[in-house]
User: Which sequence fits this backbone?
């Protein structure tokens, strides 16, 4: 089992920045694909970004490309999501999720059902 804990959410004005962290424990994390998803009130949970085990394969939703950056530090068992130029539409609960792909996986899964492990979420609120 892998336990995931998100942190770094908060209230920020439009145009501001936040950095979310996803800390993993319970099993070696370095072979896991990690994705960030978000869910706004009344909306479906949607893919935001994903990073493979090495950090060599990355994907972003079109809505965040050029503003968000995903990265990971396997020595710290942590994945980050740097969010810049935030907009009110970015307001949501942000979740990290993980899937064990082994040390050869490069494909970034974008569907929530493709991930076995989830954190509890962290709220991001962007005011206009």
Assistant:
């Amino acid at each position: 089992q892998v336990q995931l804990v998100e942190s770094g959410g908060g209230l920020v004005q439009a145009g501001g920045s936040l950095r979310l962290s996803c800390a993993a424990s319970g099993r070696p994390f370095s072979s896991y694909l990690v994705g960030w998803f978000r869910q706004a009130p009344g909306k479906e949970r949607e893919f935001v970004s994903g990073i493979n085990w090495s950090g060599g394969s990355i994907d972003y939703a079109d809505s965040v490309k050029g503003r968000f950056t995903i990265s990971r530090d396997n020595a710290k068992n942590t994945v980050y999501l740097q969010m810049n130029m935030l907009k009110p539409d970015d307001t949501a609960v942000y979740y990290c999720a993980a899937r064990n792909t082994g040390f050869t996986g490069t494909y970034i899964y974008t569907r929530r059902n493709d991930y076995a492990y989830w954190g509890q979420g962290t709220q991001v609120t962007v005011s206009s």
Notes: The chain has a mean pLDDT of 96. The radius of gyration is 14 Å. The first strand starts at residue 3 and ends at 7.
